[in-house]
Design goal:
MgtE_N_sf (chains A, B), homodimer, 65% helix, MgtE N-terminal fold, metal-binding (chains A, B), magnesium (chains A, B), cell membrane (chains A, B), 470 residues, Magnesium transporter MgtE (chains A, B), CBS-domain, Tetracycline Repressor, domain 2, 6 strands
Chain lengths: 470, 470
């Protein structure tokens, strides 16, 4: 497709163009996007259609995200029934409702019934209750029942993530029977990587990777080639923990079980990859005080989502201002204090942020656990004091040389050790405390941390200076 | 195993204990770890052996990471030849060399030859040249040649990540022939999810997921069931881009090709999951000025790796100090300026960090591309000015009411708009500029950003105050 667009216009209508994904350039090239947008703006429906109709659903989603709202509507209208509904699950959440509106509930409901349950649930779960019900009521009874059962699980749980159509065989079957069953069954998932072995009570008792089934002769019993050491995922497990299991044990799919260890579905690695990206982005944004925003959000929505953190910061900064104002007289007498105090606060804030980031990340990857928490805390405090002493010497020397005041030099050196040590301790204790309290350790750790390190820096430096120098 | 340890000591020696992974508790419980460590410290080899020998390699790695160095050595000695070498690839990089030393090069070389090429390369690539050569020279010629060819690709490229043993069939075979080939071939990877179809020149022309092979009758030609729209990964593609392709197109494995589109290997999703976690952690750490550190690093190594960023921060903070010192006379006359200036700087720093984080993340997930960069920049600036105006009003009112000085109130309000607007613009332009210059947009963005927002905040606020009020 891209090649076609790079050539001449009439080529766009050729149905036999090479596939863009297998093309020289992977995905959408900026040039391709620009040309499609030009055609959309020019109202050239046949060209747009020819260019977009054979794109991978993920590329269609990317294209939609890059368009302006009016262009999106036009593209959806041009594609009509050829728009692959799978593109919806690849879209930013904020855009999904918009595009579904363009498509219309009738076609969406029809398409949902054809999707694997996990994909259908993914599209439905964030919708408003009324819109969700409207779509569900248009779906065939059996599909609706399956989706409704998945929606009963809590948000972000394995139950929401799982696919209900799975391949299940009894242990006494042989490989040949299993293969014949696969060839005949018609409600199987689109792709799958292992088959699950269950007993008569539907307890998950083993798994066999497809590659092993393939490589085994037909008369061999499944029981003799199955892995019994499998990672069973409880349906109420949080998706972050599910992702951790997949990463740790290098899984491609895993059985999901109910509270009686009965098989209810499977989670596949493609959904887990999504979860990992989501959670990593979430930690990053939360540490910086940004909500769940996407580039396609409106300016007003974005400004509003960033406001609360800045507002909280206004109060924490006010605490620092109150501390400084207590030493107003000292600053009037010795204005150098006002010049140096932001340096102390900056270093403390940064040292604390380093520790906090390492802590939050180690908690996310489960490297920091109950067993080693004591050791890690003392390690962090030690690191903080080592750098505290080094920067005490550096700052002390610098201030002594530049201002020729070796008493002030001593004061800033001592403040440096106190504040960097304190910053290290806060950097690890704040996220740990938030976690113990049941909160996300990433969220608002920075607000508390910077408020504390600022206040302690100003207090230590201005306090010591007032006490010793004035 | 965990259950055994929770009971009585002799139970530890039973070979028929339930597997800990399929056990009630997934992975290692803190209690299990504590008991194993107690037995290691007590020199109770049989109990330790019984507890650890059947653990999943990933759990063995986790256990090793949680131990003190002397305990690690003891555990490796106790396990002896029963230590599954696969545990090595799950270990923190810093610990790998240590544990390989305990195991000895002879056994490591032997075990490496049995691993899939991608896993062997993963273990070898970070070693020192001499240690790497020593191990390679002990390996069988064929394995060594394969690994050496992979090591010729650049670090962090698809060529390093790929597995060389792949399943390849010609398009004219039928399903039956493919299955028979699978049953007979003996150099296949441990698990695989699709088979690759190549022409006589070994060009990758299609793929068939195993589940489709299984579900198709024996006489059907492979050609008629293969997907021709496949994502081909060039061997020199950066691993971050590989991960992006997997995530975007929901892949479980993909063909890796040389510059002539000839199949040279495949990348599987388990390695990609690792890459995604690695890259997400890297962005997070780099934004906070932390290097590639692990919790198992020594205190000295950690302190040293965090020093450079703090040192850079010393200089950027000094710039702010220089700006303030230029207004020393103003501060002496009006000490309120010293009290309020950190508030302006804090808000500007935070607003800038918000924008920068969103920008760095959007670049990592490829949501921010050439096509929409102009639109995103104007969006960010608009968001910054909207919040700038809101906080100008809030700060202006607060200062006016608290200090009863409405001229100062006006000055801080105007400074707020200037600095928040500037912070938003810097937050997006700095990572973009770093990226254009070929640097990682995450690394050191914060140093530049906070240096700039601090300097501009102090300059705007103190400058305006000096000009208008004094």
């Amino acid at each position: 497709m891209e090649k076609a667009l790079n050539d001449t216009a009439p080529d766009l209508n050729r149905a036999s163009d090479p596939d863009p994904i297998a093309d020289d350039e992977i995905g959408l090239s900026p040039d391709f996007v620009r040309k499609v947008v030009d055609r959309i703006d020019a109202g050239d429906a046949p060209s747009v259609r020819a260019a977009a109709v054979d794109l991978h659903p993920s590329d269609v989603a990317e294209l939609i995200e890059l368009l302006r709202p009016d262009e999106r509507r036009t593209l959806v209208a041009i594609l009509g029934p050829d728009l692959d509904i799978a593109a919806l699950s690849e879209l930013d959440e904020g855009l999904r409702d918009e595009v579904m509106d363009y498509i219309g509930p009738g076609r969406v409901a029809e398409a949902l019934a054809d999707l694997d349950t996990d994909d259908a649930v993914y599209l439905l779960e964030d919708m408003e209750e009324s819109a969700q019900q409207a779509l569900l009521s248009r779906m065939p009874d059996e599909d609706r029942a399956q989706i409704e059962r998945s929606l009963e699980y809590e948000e972000d749980s394995a139950g929401r993530l799982m696919q209900r159509d799975i391949v299940v065989v009894p242990p006494h079957w042989n490989v040949g029977q299993a293969i014949d069953h696969l060839r005949e069954a018609d409600d199987l998932p689109e792709t799958f990587f292992e088959i699950f072995v269950v007993d008569e009570m539907y307890h998950a008792i083993g798994t066999v990777p497809l590659s092993r089934v393939m490589r085994t002769k037909r008369p061999v019993p499944i029981q003799s080639i199955m892995d019994v050491e499998q990672t069973l995922i409880p349906a109420d497990m949080d998706q972050e923990e599910v992702a951790h299991q997949f990463e740790k044990y290098n899984l491609v799919s895993a059985a999901v079980v109910d509270e009686d260890d009965r098989l209810v579905g499977m989670v596949t690695v493609d959904d887990v990859v999504e979860v990992i990206q989501e959670e990593a982005g979430e930690d990053l944004r939360r540490l910086a005080g940004v909500g769940d925003e996407a580039l396609t959000d409106t300016v007003i929505k974005t400004a509003r989502s960033r406001f609360p953190w800045l507002f909280a910061n206004l109060f924490t900064a006010a605490i620092a201002a109150v501390v400084i104002s207590a030493f107003g007289v000292s600053i009037e007498k010795m204005v150098t204090l006002a010049i140096l105090m932001p340096v102390v606060a900056a270093l403390a804030g940064n040292a604390g942020t380093q520790t906090m980031t390492v802590t939050v990340r180690a908690m996310a990857t489960r490297d920091l656990v109950d067993f080693n928490v004591g050791r890690v805390i003392s390690r962090e405090v030690l690191v903080a004091f080592i750098n505290g002493f080094i920067f005490a010497v550096l700052m002390g020397l610098g201030v002594g040389v530049i201002f020729g005041d070796w008493e002030l030099s001593g004061v800033i050196a001592v403040s440096m050790v106190i504040t960097l040590g304190f910053a290290g301790l806060s950097g690890i204790l704040i996220p740990l405390a938030l976690d113990r309290a049941g909160a996300d350790p990433a969220i608002s750790s920075s607000v508390f941390l910077i408020a504390l390190t600022d206040a302690v820096s100003f207090l230590a430096f201005l306090g010591l200076a007032t006490w010793l120098l004035l």
